[in-house]
Amino acid sequence: MTDEQSATDDPTHVQDNGRELVAQAFESARRSGRLNWTEMTTAVLKNRLLDITGRAFKESDYGARDIASFVKAYPDLLALDNSAIPPKVKLITTSVTENAKLPIASQGRIRPDLWRAVMDYRSGRSYYWDGKQAIANDSATLGPLPKFPTISSEEMDNWRRNFQETLPEKISLSEQEGEQLENWVTVRLPTNNLPLQARSLWNEHLNNRVVKLLREWFRDNSLLMPDDMVQQRTTSRSATPVGVAQLREFILRCVKNMTEDELKAINLPPSAVLRAYGGGEAGLRLGLGRQGGL
């Protein structure tokens, strides 16, 4: 028995690996901005575990029959509430998420040449690994170099559809946003046509898919995976400029969820009121009157 086999079969190793996956799942929920991130249904937990592992998670790998049995295997970490419909899982201690390692793709940017080698399905080019980088060659005259598994448009459609099916388990969508999501899938629209709150989730979903594909390809070809496959981001997310359309969509979404008191507390710039009500003193008075100012 090899050291690798021994480590894989060791119950302690399996138990620790399960703990790490649980920590990643709840850390992902925390980073999504959910207020009650320490609680989720068993279905949502399983879906997060599948996302983290590139859909490879199986309860049987951890000696469990189903997701409920998997949860019960960690009584010091998770509490299962079977009285709820659907059943809920509560994280008992939040300290476990502090050192959780998120999926590698969420920590940086996939190296551009490797990204193109997987995602450039429209050009018809083939990409090969020369030992240092992915290189494109249209005529395949590079000899016996290993060829990258560039996805097809059909595979991309499947990734989109899978994202659509699992998204409601992570965030709530209005009817309008659901239609926007469906249109994005069927018409193959760019990311900025997704509902605003779904865009970062799609980017993470897509990046994790690409990383999983690359990892498996390097492994199956007995090749050393480059250390810089995922590169550290050079600019912070907060430094990225937000477009007017995105900002307007964000504000409108906030307004839709405001209480009456919160709506009454809104202060509108006079210039915006003028534009909304036709300009002039009469328009300003009409707008301010509706706001409660005059």
TrEMBL record:
In Swiss-Prot or TrEMBL terms, this protein is called Uncharacterized protein
